[in-house]
Amino acid sequence: MNNWKLKFLLIWGGSAISIFTSAIMQMALIWHLAIATESALILSIASIAGFLPMTLLSSFAGTWVDRYSRKLIIIVSDMYLAVIALGLVIFTLLAEPPIWIILVVLFLRSIGTAFHTPAISAVTPTIVPETHLTKCAGYTQSLQTLGFIAGTSIAAVLYPLWGISGMVALDIAGAVLAGIAVMVVKIPSLPETEQQEKQGIISEVKESFGILKTHKGLFALLWIAVVFTFFFAPINALFPLMSMGHFGGTTAHASIAEISFAGGMMLGGVALGLWGGFKSRGITMCCSIALMGVAIAWSGALPTTGFVVFAVLSLLMGLSAPFYTGPHVALMQEKFPIEHLGRIFGFYGSLMSASMLLGLVTTGLTADIVGVNVWFLASGIAISILAIIAIATPGIRDIEKH
Question: Is the CATH number 1.20.1250.20 carried by domain 4-401?
Answer without folding.
Answer: yes
